[in-house]
Design a protein that fits this description.
about 325 residues
Length: about 325
């Protein structure tokens, strides 16, 4: 099984693991792999046992670990290092999926700073070249939401206004085409989404910086919000027949980028960019978002310089995650 295969990240994780025993959730394994496990992993115990056809178990067996328990219902699996089976294990298991405190081992980025900065500048230059460029709708939407966030009370009229902005921004960013359920709804479908975003419990997420975004409590809060937004949209689409089984990560991350500015939009080109250059995993997760924040911190001087320059030019304070969205969307788009 080659290092470049699907489970290369998980192989590397077990090869560098120091603990004698460990318990992991399926979500944590997916964060390391960078994508969802197959349906068989959730349905059949045999998928987790070594065989000629199942590649997943080789990740731990070839690195000296043995699976000791598997719980498909709770989506947990435990491992122990071979040779320590008769030793009283240390309490070194990973907490519940809620905290997701697993340390994702990031690869070394394979792109230099200059190319990343060039991607940001190219994206923004295309906006400046056309005063009515469709991607400028992010600025209009984000500015409106920021101004409303600074007001003590959000009125019904204010929510209606924000819903219009959000609807048009999503439309111009490609979310009202094909089989999208939003195509069958009016702009007021976003009212309950806006009410959720403005709950005081999420205040820390507005314009969050890379330092705060690495904190476990804020990552937990962000993932809770993502799931709550999906739940609201699921209710809204109940009477719409469409292709697909769930609310996409693309939709909710585009909503968050255009309102709070707290996370990039996990669309096709952005995911291609961060995956191609080893910035973070493609799967929307706490590990992936933390990886983005860590990358920003490692290159904060150059990224902050370009962010502040764009903010002055646009007369709007661009967020750090918006800057990364621009960079890796452009690099993913340009990559052939």
């Amino acid at each position: 099984m080659g290092r470049g295969d699907k489970f290369a990240g998980l192989i590397r994780y077990f090869s560098e693991l120091k603990a004698d025993n460990i318990t992991m959730t399926f979500e944590q394994i997916e964060s390391i792999v960078g994508e969802k496990l197959s349906k068989s992993a959730y349905q059949y115990p045999a998928y987790w046992y070594d065989s000629k056809t199942h590649m997943l178990p080789k990740c731990w067996t070839e690195n000296g670990y043995k699976m000791t328990s598997l719980n498909l219902k709770e989506q947990k699996v435990a491992f122990i290092k071979v040779g320590t089976m008769n030793v009283v294990p240390k309490t070194d298991s990973i907490p519940k999926a809620k905290t997701n405190s697993i340390s994702f081992i990031r690869k070394q980025p394979t792109i230099n700073k200059e190319k990343v900065l060039s991607g940001i500048n190219k994206f923004y230059s295309d906006l400046e070249a056309d005063e009515n460029a469709r991607y400028l709708s992010w600025e209009h939407c984000y500015k409106s939401f920021q101004e409303a966030h600074n007001k003590p009370i959000l009125t019904d009229k204010g929510m209606d206004y924000l819903s219009l902005h959000l609807a048009f921004y999503l439309a111009s960013w490609g979310m009202l085409r094909g089989s999208s359920f939003l195509l069958q709804k009016d702009y007021k479908v976003h009212i309950d989404i806006i009410k959720e975003l403005y709950k005081p419990c999420y205040n820390n997420l507005w314009c969050i910086n890379y330092i705060e975004l690495q904190k476990q409590e804020n990552l937990d809060m962000l993932m809770d919000l993502i799931e709550n937004l999906k739940s609201i949209y699921r209710i809204k689409r109940r009477n719409v027949k469409e292709v697909g089984t769930d609310i996409s990560d693309i939709l909710v991350t585009k909503v968050l980028l255009g309102t709070m500015g707290c996370v990039p939009a996990y669309d096709e080109y952005f995911k291609k960019g961060i995956s191609k250059y080893n910035i973070a995993t493609q799967l929307l997760s706490k590990s992936s978002i933390k990886g983005l924040a860590e990358y920003y911190e490692e290159n904060k001087t150059e990224l902050e310089d370009v962010r502040k320059s764009i903010s002055r030019a646009s007369q709007l304070e661009y967020t750090q995650m918006k800057v990364l969205d621009m960079a890796f969307w452009q690099l993913g788009y340009d990559y052939k």
